[in-house]
Design goal:
Layout (H helix, E strand, L loop, with lengths): L20 H14 L4 H18 L6 E6 L2 E14 L11 H11 L3 E4 L14 E3 L2 E4 L1 E5 L4 E5 L10 H10 L3 E5 L13 E6 H7 L3 H13 L3 H6 L6 H11 L6 E4 L7 E2 L2 E2 L3 H7 L1 E6 L5 H10 L2 E4 L10 E6 L5 E3 L4 E3 L4 E17 L2 E14 L5 E11 L5 E8 L2 E4 L14
Parallel strand pairs: 2-3, 3-5, 8-9, 9-10, 17-22
Antiparallel strand pairs: 1-2, 2-13, 4-5, 6-7, 7-8, 11-12, 13-14, 14-21, 15-16, 15-18, 18-19, 18-20, 20-21, 20-22
């Protein structure tokens, strides 16, 4: 093992964990109890139990089971990296072999490459499945106050401002993600997602790097890169405020930006090796069935997933949904938008007990701790999401962000509902 071996705080949180079977079967058991009206529903649910048991024992089956008005659905939870650089970029020397090996070591399912502009971006771009990880070609193009991340491209991004770049990316069938959003003020474009957390900004650009570096340097010199990087991590307040504000007007899916370069060295010590930066934070996406490029792009665009600082523990088993108070049917997943109704409540599931705070339009509404929690949906139209915190046992037990859900958007009612449970997925 090299000097940047991934250091886990608990054996439960390994690099390539199994699905938490108890989480899946808890959801199915509850569904089984609710399916009383017809024998065929009970049989169908029993088959789902067997299906979930099989998938809970396999790496590819990590996910959640949701009971909807028409039955029980299984969503796989795929974990990956958005915003990564290779030798194609001017500021990285990372080879394809190093990148694939690191992705496989960490257990990534997908990686959205976002190299800086270069003539060989497409010809030398990493694409397809390698080491069990699906790679997409992308580009990071600078804006006056941030950057544009184009994902799934066939050519270089064209244009000089956020609107022109968005049109260029969409013209290639790709996704336009606003990166380094801490400095962006012009959001007047049809972009697809927002980089809510950026590792580069958190460690080097948000004003705390000098003081923190003095504390982190000894750990870096000892080869404890993950412990050193943890010292820089905190909540991205500036971007979170923008995310909540933008969500009042439109859906704004959120992703994490690893901004991985593997280009910071102190003598012989690599401060940001790919395995550590890939494992630091991940974007999780809920997808039905096998992972494909089309499904991956759709999940990002729909905001059907969450952000997890994986170094504190795997997020598999987390979900945040809106359910019917009486039937417990799931009405909406993360990223969905629906009209105001008074017969619903929020449910949060976690693989391990941690404090969970519900946010409404950016304001904390209350905190609970547990693994299966219910929050009221009683503030009216707005943007609802949850944040999960944990403690950094490597650095004095300070409270740190662990999981950021994507929002569920409640809008003003514009027409009478046609039934109690209109939505299904």
């Amino acid at each position: 093992m090299n000097n940047y071996e991934l250091r886990m705080t608990n054996d439960e949180f390994g690099v390539r964990p199994r699905a938490k079977q108890s989480v899946a079967l808890t959801r199915v058991t509850r569904a089984f109890k609710n399916q009383k009206s017809k024998i065929k529903n009970c049989i169908a649910t029993a088959l789902v139990v067997l299906f979930a048991s099989y998938y809970a024992s396999a790496d590819q089956g990590r996910g959640v089971i949701l009971e909807t008005p028409s039955g029980v659905n299984y969503w796989s939870d795929y974990r990956g990296v958005v915003h990564a650089h290779s030798f194609v970029s001017h500021d990285s020397e990372g080879t394809h072999e190093e990148i694939v090996a690191a992705a496989e070591q960490v257990g990534l399912d997908f990686m959205c490459m976002t190299d800086h502009p270069a003539d060989n971006l497409v010809s030398d771009g990493l694409t397809g499945v390698h080491g069990g990880c699906l790679f997409l070609i992308g580009e990071e193009r600078g804006l006056a106050d941030g950057s544009m991340l184009g994902v799934h491209l066939s050519d270089l991004i064209d244009g000089g401002d956020v609107r022109e770049m968005t049109e260029s990316i969409h013209g290639m069938g790709g996704l336009a993600i606003l990166g380094h959003a801490e400095g962006i003020e012009d959001f007047d474009a049809d972009f697809d997602a927002l980089e809510v957390y950026n590792l580069h900004y958190d460690t080097l650009l948000d004003g705390k790097e000098r003081a923190t570096m003095l504390r982190a340097m000894p750990q870096l010199l000892l080869g404890n890169q993950e412990r050193a990087l943890r010292m820089f991590q905190d909540r991205p307040d500036v971007v979170m405020e923008k995310w909540d504000r933008l969500g009042l007007e439109r859906r704004v899916p959120g992703v994490a930006g690893n901004d991985s370069h593997q280009n910071v060295r102190f003598g012989t010590i690599q401060a940001d090796p790919y395995p550590v930066s890939y494992h630091f934070v991940n974007t999780h996406l809920f997808i039905k069935g096998d992972l494909t490029t089309e499904k991956l792009l759709d999940a990002i665009e729909e905001g059907r997933g969450y952000i997890c600082h994986e170094m504190y523990g795997d997020g598999f088993g987390f979900d945040f949904t809106l359910r019917h108070k009486n039937t417990k049917h799931v009405i909406a997943m993360q990223g969905e938008e629906l009209e105001l109704r008074d017969d619903v409540e929020f449910e949060v599931n976690l693989p391990t007990s941690r404090p969970v705070t519900l946010y409404y339009n950016g304001e904390a509404q209350g905190t609970q701790e547990g693994t299966d929690l219910v929050f009221p949906c009683d503030k009216g139209p707005g943007v609802y999401r949850v944040e999960v915190t944990t403690t950094d046992d490597m650095n004095g037990g300070r409270v740190v962000p662990w999981i950021f859900s994507n929002p569920i958007y409640i809008r003003e009612k514009t027409a009478p509902a046609t039934s109690d449970d209109e939505e299904d997925f």
